[in-house]
Amino acid sequence: MPAPGQVQFQQRMRFKAILKRRCPRCLRGQVFASAFRMRRNCGVCDRRFERQEPGYFVGALYFAYGLAVLLGAPPAACLWWHGFSMGVNALVITGELIILSPWIFQYSRILFLHLDQLFDPT
Ligand SMILES: [Zn+2]
Description:
Bound molecules: zinc ion
Structural class: mainly alpha
Number of domains: 1
Shape: elongated
Number of helices: 4
Helix content: 55-70%
Largest sheet: 2 strands, antiparallel
């Protein structure tokens, strides 16, 4: 069993790897080649990012939904608070989420990959 200080260090390293969108196994290799294109394998540890299961990344949709709500709710509440109509509110939030879609796409997959790595480290 690892020491408490070591666990905190590992959690900090994983958190940094998530923020930098790095490989869930080695925490160093880049996962994305461009905004909407993932690499097939990690360049450092050769971990295959998409497992051999159909619809592997469907679970990432839950993270994408959560991120969209986290990013869309505060401005929506602010616009509602200032008396803007629901049409304006929907237009602003839709535009915001379209602009942020590469970010949401990447982080939803990164979060899913890291969660999957914790439950199934093979
Ligand atoms: Zn790796």
